[in-house]
Design goal:
The complex is a heterotrimer. Chain A is mainly α. Chain A is built from eight helices and no strands. The radius of gyration of chain C is 23 Å and the shape is elongated. Classes of the chains: A mainly alpha, B mainly alpha, C alpha/beta.
């Protein structure tokens, strides 16, 4: 009964995609009702899918703990303990409880903010070591980057008032136009890929056997 | 009086900064902070998902008699069969449900929202605006830039002759755009880092005050 | 060893073998300096910031706006000035606001802390002048559903109140009930742009980090009517609403970081160009 494995999911995908597109362009109340309910159900299924991440993470880290992986097993144990403590406190006491908010403000807030700043340091190291005007392309990129970064902070305007005019023009014209064209190519590629998925030629989204 | 939550947040922040400012490599302090972040983030997302399911699936079934939601409840549970070797294929059904709805939304939004208003409309411009040389120049620039960048992405024929020059010019315009993006992302990261460093200094001074 | 490195070494013009930590600590010191020493760097107003301000200023009394802000704690240092200043401007007007986040789960507590607190301080009444729905999971599907059937997908607010118990939500049905969408964060503006703008023709203005602002610039002024991008725009907005905040000092700090950044690139390239000439 191999059709259960491949064909049924492909038919479900195609049917729902066509329904959602059809409902957008044609006014038919019954189709709209079904489409709106399907969209709501997709949101609910996305919430279920988060649990898969929790299960996968738990299995991976429990294996580290059981196998006593060197320099890792105690961190894995800490991760699993903290994750389930967060879930129990959040579900039991509620995300509005003072305990949950305390845990959130003490860990996620500072760590979220700090981890994202590490890239800044690496960018500076890269600027010192490897940003070279080796050819026309690299020169254009570097010169534009310097002009724009001095335009974004008000330093360029201290050098000459025309700096803001140049910076604004570079942002509004080359940047905006090229951005639009790049979006266009992404959109066209995505539409082509979407049609292939509807027709069943692309099945990569179905997890492998 | 030392505030324990500020102390914990500060310690975790300094653990993350140890990766760049002290050890410049992976170390136990950094990995501890990293594992803490992953644990609480995943736990927080799970709590939000559970709360959403409670409010939008469980409560309507129990209190409002919306029994049709039992179907989506079953579909959501079927997602977890991906951990079973024998019934793995069943998890594709709810997965294809989500993919189908998402695909339909993307295709309809991108076709209606991007192809015309996003790309074609902004490029329909007057090639000559009487009395306004600057706008005329900008309009011609937009059209030339759009066509040259698009020509860069023609991969089905070899870039020879006029196409080669056009594609090269398009590539130069793209380098300008990447320079603009790079400088703005650097600015963003610098702003995030400065805020973070200020918080560290303020926290340390509040502990010793 | 590459040929370029060989040339640099032979010519005696190679980069000093610098421990990366020297650059990192120099960056730390330069970023912190403006917070302790008043730099007084002048700040001209950009036309885009003025345009964003005018869009909000033109809102008629009793307009209902969707304020969809998706900045987590990581983005706060850059964007806090902008969202607080815009919230203050909105709170000063007799308009109704629906606050939500649709992409970033960590944005809901940030919105509570930075946006709701501004409305409370301005004396606004919850449920009558503003409502907070917290985080709505589901990505683009949820945003599309929100546009078509607002109450179909949102049953309770961030605090657990039923949507039917909130007076200002009585007349909200779908996207047509809203006058404007103010979106903050990437890619939530994409969801709004694809599902609210083309179908319902709702004006969309966006608050973005500097990096995302240049990406969304390509959609200005067609589907995105105004953009408030980065810390500089936040500092300018604070000047516009005459309410100084954290953004100006932050901008001065970033200015010093930029000086170091341009300096390191310039130093590296000067040495490179001279070594090429020697060759």
């Amino acid at each position: 009964m191999s059709y259960k494995r491949r064909e049924i999911p492909v038919v479900i995908t195609a049917a729902l995609a066509i329904l959602v597109i059809f409902e957008y362009f044609f006014k038919w109340q019954d189709a709209t009702n079904v489409s709106v309910r399907a969209q709501g159900w997709a949101v609910i299924l996305a919430s279920f899918a988060i649990g898969i991440g929790v299960v996968s993470t738990t299995i991976f880290h429990i294996r580290n703990v059981m196998g006593r992986v060197k320099k890792q097993w105690y961190l894995s144990a800490w991760l699993v303990f903290l994750m389930f403590a967060t879930i129990i406190i959040g579900v039991g006491l509620g995300p509005d409880s003072s305990s949950y908010k305390w845990m959130y403000n003490t860990t996620i807030n500072p760590l979220n903010a700090t981890i994202s700043t590490l890239l800044t340091f690496f960018g500076f190291s890269a600027a010192y070591r490897s940003f070279r005007a080796r050819n026309i392309d690299a020169t254009l990129l570097l010169v534009t980057a310097v002009i724009i970064i001095l335009y974004v902070v008000p330093l360029g305007e201290l050098i000459t008032p025309s700096w803001s005019f140049v910076g604004n023009w570079l942002t509004s014209y080359p940047n905006a136009v090229v951005g639009r064209v790049l979006y266009a190519t992404v959109v066209m590629g995505s539409i082509a890929l979407g049609v292939r998925i509807i027709l069943g030629y692309e099945r990569g989204y179905l997890a492998g056997d | 009086m030392i505030s324990i939550d500020i102390l914990i947040a500060l310690v975790l922040t300094l653990f993350v900064f140890s990766f760049v400012l002290w050890r410049t490599k992976d170390n136990l302090m950094y990995r501890f902070a990293e594992h803490t972040f992953v644990a609480v983030s995943l736990g927080n997302m799970t709590v939000l998902a559970i709360k959403y399911l409670q409010g939008n699936v469980i409560n309507p079934i129990i209190y409002k008699g919306d029994y049709i939601l039992i179907i989506v409840l079953i579909l959501g549970c079927l997602l977890y069969l991906r951990f079973s070797k024998r019934f793995f294929y069943i998890c594709r059904w709810p997965l294809s449900f989500m993919v189908g709805v998402g695909l339909g939304l993307t295709l309809r939004g991108w076709t209606h929202g991007w192809l015309f208003s996003g790309i074609i409309t902004p490029t329909i411009l007057s090639l000559a605006v009487v009395g306004d040389a600057f706008t005329t120049f900008n309009n011609i620039f937009v059209i030339v830039c759009t066509l040259t960048v698009l020509s860069y992405f023609i991969f089905s024929i070899q870039h020879k002759g006029a196409l080669r020059y056009s594609a090269t010019l398009g590539r130069y315009f793209m380098m300008v755009m990447f320079g603009v993006m790079f400088s703005n992302y650097t600015f963003s990261r610098l702003a995030t880092l400065s805020g973070r460093l200020l918080w560290v200094v303020q926290s340390i001074s509040s502990i010793f005050a | 060893m590459t040929n370029e490195k060989k040339v640099e070494e032979k010519s005696g013009l190679s980069l000093p073998k610098l421990d990366e930590r020297v650059i990192y600590w120099a960056l730390v010191v330069l970023l912190l300096l403006p917070f302790f020493v008043n730099m007084g760097i002048p700040l001209p107003l950009s036309p885009m910031t003025q345009e964003f301000y005018d869009y909000v200023d033109r809102l008629k009394p009793d307009s209902v706006i969707l304020y969809s802000v998706d900045f987590g704690p990581g983005s706060l240092p850059e964007i806090e000035g902008s969202i607080v200043a815009v919230s203050k401007q909105i709170a000063s007007k007799p308009i109704k606001v629906v606050i939500i986040s649709v992409w970033e789960p960590t944005a809901a507590p940030v919105n509570e802390e930075k946006i709701v607190s501004v409305f409370k301080a301005a004396g606004k009444t919850y449920g009558v002048d503003y409502v907070n729905f917290g985080f709505l999971p589901g990505g683009e599907g949820a945003v599309a559903r929100l546009a078509d059937d607002f109450k179909g997908i949102l049953k309770v607010d961030y605090y657990g109140n039923s949507i039917e118990d909130l007076p200002m939500m009585q007349n909200i049905k779908d996207a047509t009930s809203f006058t404007m969408v103010i979106d903050g964060g990437f890619p939530s503006w994409l969801y709004m742009r694809q599902n609210w703008v083309p179908k319902y023709n709702i004006p969309l203005i966006s608050i973005e980090a500097a990096g995302s602002a240049v990406e969304v610039r390509s959609m200005y002024p067609f589907s995105l009517k105004a953009i408030l991008g980065g810390a500089r725009a936040g500092a300018e907005y604070e000047v516009l609403i005459k309410s100084p905040g954290v953004a100006k000092k932050g901008l001065d700090s970033v200015t010093f970081g930029v000086i170091l950044f341009v300096g390191t690139i310039a130093l590296g390239n000067v040495i490179y160009v001279r070594s090429r000439r020697k060759k």
